[in-house]
Amino acid sequence: MSGEPRIFNVLFLCTGNSCRSIMAEAYLNFAGRGRFKAYSAGSYPKGEVHPLALETLRVAGVPAQGLTSKGWEGFEEPGAPELDFVITTCDNAANEVCPIWPGQPMNAHWPFPDPDAFEGSETETRAYFLDVFRQVRTRIDILMNLPMASLDKLALKKRLDEIGKVKPEETAG
Q1: In CATH, what number is assigned to the domain containing residue 28?
Q2: Alpha-carbon gap, residue 98 to 64, rounded angstroms
């Protein structure tokens, strides 16, 4: 045993992999350094990260360089990271048939509103992106504060599912 802390690999999935899953990947990698390694992918990736998702991350002080919109195929291949958790961030991705991931990760669904689908003024749209990011940040903060070492698999699955049910108004702050 090396004494090194266990690093949990988390894959955030969304259909387009341009907003919600990207913000989740960036924030968990920023806030969970040394404990979590986050990735994101999409079932039908848009191929580019939404500019307002990148701006939102910069405004929040979260590094945004190197983020890409990509498909989930790379996580099925030999040599892909062994995943501990796969978290869907949109209802479309949650309803799709996902691959069998290496490592038999625990799955959870954390639905977030789609900021890319929001219609409003430029100011309202920026505010909406910030609100969705706040929700992402709050759920990830809850995940990072779970006592991983003391939870058995069933208790951990229950907690992951509960995090996904946190309502936006419960994350205000």
Answers
A1: 3.40.50.2300
A2: 27
- C-alpha 58/C-alpha 47 separation (Å) is 20
Q: Which residues form the domain of 104?
A: 8-171
**Residues of the chain by 3-state class (helix, strand, coil), percent to 5:** 45, 15, 45
137 vs 140: CA distance, rounded Å: 5
First-last CA distance in the chain: 41
Number of domains the chain contains:
1
- Do 76 and 43 form a contact (C-beta atoms < 8 A)? no
The answer to whether the pTM exceeds 0.85 is yes
Cα–Cα dist 149/146, whole Å: 9
Catalytic residues: 14, 90, 98
Express each pLDDT in 100-136 by its tens digit.
677 789 999 999 999 999 999 999 999 999 999 999 9
